[in-house]
Amino acid sequence: MAFSRRKFSKALLSNLPFATGAFSILKPSLLAAIAPVDALSSLSVSPLSGILGHEAFAIPSAVPPLGLNTWSLRELKHDQAIPAILRVMQETGLRNCQLLFSHAEPEEFDPDFASMFSKAGKLPSQQERDEQKRKSEARAAWRLSVPMTYFEALRSQFEQRGLKIQGYATPLGSSAEEIDRVFLMAKTMGAVVVNTRLPEAQTDLVAAAAVRHGLFVGIQATDQRILALQLRASPQMRADPDLGDLTKAGVSARDFVEGHLDSISSIDLKDAVAGGGSVPFGTGDAHMKEVLQFLVHARSNVEIYIDCDYPGTGSSADEVKRCVRYVRGVINEQ
User: Fold this and answer.
1) Is the pLDDT of residue 109 over 90?
2) Residue 312 within a domain
3) Nearest by Cα to 333 from 279, 300, 292
């Protein structure tokens, strides 16, 4: 009887957990040959699975879970962003995303991302500081008043398509009330981690909010001294390294990941030139290929996110797809 690859995959996957254990000893390249992308995605178990409801005895696959950091589509306006994110996730087979705050909150609060890139390294003018303060205050007022049904509806758009908001990437605000509200917003959307650049002075306040809401904090940092202090504040505190940002800051992304793997909640896949700007995947100094190889060989299930911000990205689904092809190509070589 003819037995197609799809039928074989379906039959094998229907016998989990045995199939999971069987798959877990195969090379990712062989997995890709016998199972569709959706099947591979379902086998990956995040290190945060304890709060995702997975069975405690689930056997992790050798393939790191690959998702989308929606920063890759940062220039899309609010009414365009969510449909585009849903579409590109479905077209690429990515099931999880780290949602950028500007894709969940009203457009009027959005930073000028294009200006941020063009003025990188330059101090803002007084007028720019005043405008940012105004936006921050307006955002805080909106966060403290918006009903949670707003975020329930957003979550529903993803879940109806079999997709998940895994993380929420956002500035936290300055008051305890706003910080608490951000965690509630993230939890309502189904996120299990809030990813943020965390001022050292807010560490204890944020750690307490994370414990209260049962979420993790993915700290985006390049200063390893401050990061080490923040990680010690609570078991809820994790690192969310950006390979490109580390490289730009003169930190070896490969050494960082290898040295901090047990404390990492997710990794943002971005390539960059040391001391320079972002570049297409595989062409910079972030050692992305080596990092991916390390994660596969370590059988790590840390979430990895496509996070492209080199010139030509920001609104292009094609560039996201190009990045996905590069990452899957490296993984499938192992």
Assistant:
1) no
2) yes
3) 292
CA distances from 125 to 115, 130, 136, 229, 243 (A): 12, 9, 16, 32, 30
Please, what is the angle between helix 176-188 and helix 126-145, to 10°? Answer: 60
Domain count, the chain: 1
User: Residue 251: what residue type?
Assistant: V
Q: Cα(61)–Cα(38) distance, rounded to whole angstroms?
A: 13
Q: Tell me whether residue 52 is in a domain.
A: no
Express each pLDDT in 184-208 by its tens digit.
Answer: 999 999 999 999 999 999 999 999 9
CA angle (257, 258, 261) in 5-degree steps: 65
Q: What is the CATH number of the domain that holds 172?
A: 3.20.20.150
Q: Supply 22's token pair.
A: 């069987």
CA angle in degrees (0–180, nearest 5) for 210-214-220? 40
- Its sign, for the CA torsion 19, 21, 22, 25, is positive
Q: List beta partners, residue 100.
A: 169
Query: Does 32 map to a domain?
Result: no
Residue 5: the pLDDT is: 37
Q: Look up the domain containing 151 and give its range.
A: 64-333
Cβ neighbourhood burial of 187 (10 Å; 0-12, 13-18, 19+): middle
Indicate whether 271 belongs to any domain. yes
What is the H or E stretch that residue 233 is in? none
Nearest residue to 243 (alpha-carbon basis) of 297, 283, 192:
283
Does residue 199 have a cis peptide bond before it, meaning omega lies within 30 degrees of 0? no
